[in-house]
Give the backbone structure.
Amino acid sequence: MEKQKNSPEYHPFLDQPNRTLMALSFPILLSLIAEPVTGLIDTGFVAQLGTVPLAALGVGTGVLSSVFWIFGFLGIGTQTEVAQTYGKGKINESIKAVSLAMTMGFLISLVLIVLLLPGATALSSLLGAEGAVLDQATHYIQVRLLGAPAVIITIVGFGALRGIQDMKTPLWVALGINITNIVLDYLFIFGWQFIPAMNVGGAALASAISQWFGAVWMLWEVNRKLGFTRDFNIRDGINLIKIGRDLFIRTGMLTLFMLVATRVANQIGEEAGAAHQVIRQVWFFTALVLEAFATTAQSLVGYFYGSQRVDYAKQVAKITILWSLATGIMLAVGMVIATNWVIATLVPEEAVAVFLSAWIIASLSQPLNSIAFITDGIHWGTSDYSFLRNAMLSASITGLVGLFLIPIGNPDAFTWVWVVTVIWIGIRGFWGFLRVYPGIGNSPFSQQSL
């Protein structure tokens, strides 16, 4: 596996795998953390306006986050395609892939604006908004839609740069977007000198402007490091649509399971609902750490897979799985150690009794989470999207059956919600791991070379 540093097949991962992995993963982690931190600051600003604007913000961000999440396939597909063509040394193909994804993303965003501008009220109503909350949520969505093309351009741009293993530029762009958003939030929500106070609409305008700032920056960076071309066939977008279909089903089943788990917890009682919210938020935060490794694995596996060296891609899989598993174990230990602090700071006193056992189970599931997340990234890198869809279907159908079988009146019902959740994540990790070792089905990892 030794390669000369001046060889076209050389990659620093081959000489310094651990250092390369950490150097690529750390900027991704920081960029992933930036958005939820800004979301908390957004919430803090709007909370000063009262409960109605805060509820409207929750409805509006819920609608738009779901919509933008659906179109995350453009970023995932772009990252994998660019990584693979970059590994082949076919930079022109990388440029075509990015140009196609940018064009499709822009067209999709225009369709979103046309559909959601008149549909904002109906969507807000579906999430339970009424009266003044409905009016303000509708206004928030309609203003933020001005930034929809910018959001999708940025998603594609992040995928393009991460595909060529430039993880630092997306970090700086993400920080720039979020810092700009925070500054504009204060100006537009509360007003300043000649700028009138726009309340929750001001939060939406701040987001839209900051997103366009990031999109322009991202377009400049992608053009500088890769470039754009008109020499692409729009019919090639069918592959992206297929990716979107598979990831839509996968994301839909994941979301459905999480929503049903939350619903069951709330049916058990207010205490279980409060405890579930605390555990879920901590669980989501730990997922950011694991997702950073998964995104790095996607780029590296895609690069070596594209260069027709499955042996190197397997080496990436092995090392990233070990790092992710070690991180999962550390997260589990950290969560158990932090139990008393979490109870003291986040858990209402009346919810402590139902919280504790479920928290321990969720904590101990972190190693399983790590396997599920990292194998997702590995299989993204090989374009194994249909497998990821099927694995999620298998896990979610099993998990949903388990949730429906939980006896709501049982004293341990809430604990069983998290037992089922661990089974759900365990099934995902089980299939994901077997697809790599030994390489079940038509796995790319069962081949010696392409």
Notes: The CA atoms of residues 181 and 207 lie 6 Å apart.
